[in-house]
Amino acid sequence: MYTNQPHVIYQSDSNWQHELMQKRDMLMGTLHPHVGRTLRVTTLDGHTYEGVLVNVDGHHVYLQVTSHGQHHGQHRPIYTPAQYNQIMTLVLFELLVIVLLS
Prior knowledge:
Blueprint: H1 14-31, E1 38-43, E2 48-56, E3 60-64, E4 71-72, E5 87-91, E6 95-100
Antiparallel strand pairs: 1-2, 1-6, 2-3, 2-4, 3-5
Protein name: DUF2642 domain-containing protein
Organism: Paenibacillus marchantiophytorum
InterPro entries: LSM_dom_sf
């Protein structure tokens, strides 16, 4: 039988929501003082990127990558000359390790 009422297919646990918000705020506070510095970022999927931290907001880290050393891991993307020195947007919640390089 079809009904016009919405059907919730997923709802996160309220404890998880609170913890996630705390981690997001902590991570943003940790990263903001390092805008303009070189970082190495490793994602949950095992991809590693190096570049200059351009900005961080509640959802993303913006990393300016260069033509060399910008990506390490299982899958190396194809870069064209037009893509050198591009701003890469990484999802804040997918970051596993962030290392300050300079």
